[in-house]
Amino acid sequence: MTATPHARWERTVDQWTSVYREVYAEQGAGRFAGWTDFVTGRPIADSVMRAWLAWSVEAIARVRPRALLEIGGGTGMLVDALADSVDRYVFTDPVTGDRDHPHPGVTTVRAGAHDLARVLGADDRFDCVVVNSVVQYFPDCDYLAHVLAEIEPHLMPDAVVFLGDLRRGDLHLDQCRERARHREPFAAADRIDEVAAQIARTDPELTVTPAVIARAAAGLDDDWLLRVRPRSFDSDSELARYRFDALLKAGPGPAVRGPVRSVRNGLLTPTGPTPAEVEARGESVSLAPEDPYALWIGNDDDLWIDVADLASPETGGGR
Ligand SMILES: C[S@@+](CC[C@H](N)C(=O)[O-])C[C@H]1O[C@@H](n2cnc3c(N)ncnc32)[C@H](O)[C@@H]1O
């Protein structure tokens, strides 16, 4: 007998919950508990994690949240940094959500992302929902669509949903090749491809593309816009090269869009500027939604894509 989708969801959520329960217990829930480099398999250096955290906090703070719902808050690094700047913070996590938080504006709830309809009150409204470094533990893209549908009634009209630190599916094989080369530095190219394919097959985490995110949001009641932001805090880190942030907000977009230029992404190709270099020139930058090696440069408003345009079945997928 094949498992129903919900039984499969529950199995995957239970597996990751057990993994995180062990990680947090073994490492005393230190700030950066459980963060290992995909390429080397070693713990990520504290300096890189500090830069990663500063980036995440700044990216969320830019949205200027007042009432924030965090899904999968983990060891609480984001709530610790952001609680002072918001009126209300609801922190949820299936493992750590039963711990109290010292800040009076923070409510903690033990729940998985699929279970929020049960724990949120009918009148709960948020102007920002943060799901940072959590989607990779979701069972599949339908689960993500389900989570977005569950939170939609709890969003204020100007709300932003921040899906952060997503693993990019159309760079997954490149990332696995990097890991294969680390394991077998002298191997020929076809051996590297073989090892990389094997690593990709056994990687238990969910990877997504901007198109997959758009499809997950396409079933929502409102029209939504998507911005695909790079995480360019450290050019040497796999956390910067292979991950991205997706921001969703209710549309419509501008009736007439200004020009957007496409250039090679210097984090991944020998030519072209890095996203940080573009931003240092005072320009806004996005990742091109359908070309993982390209950046888009343009006015901020013009870089938001209509979810419906990107959600068509022909656009590229993750796993
Ligand atoms: C890498 S930590 C991220 C913590 C935090 N968001 C941050 O950015 O520092 C991943 C967290 O996701 C939680 N998690 C895993 N599966 C989940 C699910 N289905 N729903 C909600 N949270 C989940 C885990 O318990 C873990 O605490």
Could you characterize what this model shows?
This protein is α/β, with parallel strands linked by helices and 319 residues long. It has a domain of 182 residues: Rossmann fold (3-Layer(aba) Sandwich). Helix content is 34%, strand content 20%. It contains eleven helices and eleven strands. The strands form two sheets. It has an eight-stranded mixed sheet. A three-stranded antiparallel sheet has the order 8-10-9. Helix 3 links the parallel strand 1 and strand 2. Helix 5 crosses helix 8 and helix 6 packs across helix 7. The longest helix has 22 residues. The protein is globular, with a radius of gyration of 19 Å. It starts with a helix and ends in a 9-residue tail after the last helix. The model has no long low-confidence stretch (mean pLDDT 92). Bound molecules: S-adenosylmethionine. The site of S-adenosylmethionine has 21 residues, from helix 1 and helix 3.
